[in-house]
């Protein structure tokens, strides 16, 4: 619990085009459920569908060749999970089984999204990132403050 972790949010500030053949509009279906038996998970492993609260925030990208009736480019929303630099585990995603745990660890102004542990772990695992569930974090200043949220809301509005 010594070295505080640092948010990697600013490392990913520029949107990266997913490339040809991916319009970003259709969600990918999880393949993990194809391999999960319907019994209980192994001891110490949370169930795939365990609800978790994850540091995240909305992002928007202009849709290619799409406009609304007024001719304004259509913006497509998506959720960006915040990744963190961990002193021993490299880049990690944080997940909390309670909202109170997320707030205690990262502060009241931390944006978050509720999701299921399985799809989160599968999605970030494809990037070589592991999920730390209910991590104990070293004390430090929060990454987000109320003024940051107000500025972010103005930026994406």
Keywords:
7 strands; globular; 4-stranded mixed β-sheet; 3 helices; 3-stranded antiparallel β-sheet; single chain; alpha+beta; 157 residues
Structural class: alpha+beta
Shape: globular
Low-confidence segments, ≥5 residues, pLDDT <50? 9-18, 24-38
Number of helices: 3
Q: Strand order, main sheet: write it out.
A: 1-4-5-7
Main sheet record: 4 strands, mixed
Oligomer: single chain
Rounded to the nearest angstrom, the distance between the terminal CA atoms is 38 Å
- Average pLDDT figure: 76
Percent of sequence in beta strands: 25-35%
Bin the helical content: 10-25%
β-strand number? 7
For the CA atoms, what is the radius of gyration? Answer: 17 Å
- What letter string, H or E per element, gives the SSE order? EEEEEHEHEH
Give me the secondary-structure topology:
Layout: E1 6-7, E2 51-67, E3 73-81, E4 83-86, E5 90-95, H1 99-106, E6 112-116, H2 117-125, E7 130-133, H3 146-156
Parallel strand pairs: 5-7
Antiparallel strand pairs: 1-4, 2-3, 2-6, 4-5
What does the model show?
It is a single chain. The chain is of the alpha+beta class and 157 residues long. The chain is built from three helices and seven strands. It has helices at residues 99-106, 117-125, 146-156, and strands at 6-7, 51-67, 73-81, 83-86, 90-95, 112-116, 130-133. Strands 1-4-5-7 form a four-stranded mixed beta sheet, covered by helices on one side. It has a three-stranded antiparallel beta sheet with strand order 3-2-6. The termini are far apart. Mean pLDDT is 76; it is low at 9-18 and 24-38.
């Amino acid at each position: 619990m010594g070295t505080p972790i640092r948010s990697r949010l600013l490392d990913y500030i520029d949107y990266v085009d997913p490339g040809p053949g991916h319009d970003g509009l259709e969600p990918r279906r999880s393949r993990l459920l194809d391999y999960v038996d319907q019994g209980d998970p192994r001891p110490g492993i949370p169930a795939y569908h365990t609800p978790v609260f994850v540091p995240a925030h909305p992002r928007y990208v202009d849709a290619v060749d799409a406009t609304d009736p007024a001719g304004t480019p259509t913006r497509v929303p998506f959720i960006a999970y915040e990744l963190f630099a961990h002193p021993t585990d490299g880049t990690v995603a944080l997940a909390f089984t309670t909202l109170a745990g997320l707030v205690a660890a990262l502060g009241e102004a931390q944006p978050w999204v509720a999701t299921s542990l399985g799809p989160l772990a599968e999605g970030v695992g494809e990037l070589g990132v592991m999920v730390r569930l209910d991590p104990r974090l070293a004390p430090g200043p929060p990454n987000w403050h109320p003024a940051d949220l107000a500025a972010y809301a103005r930026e994406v509005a």
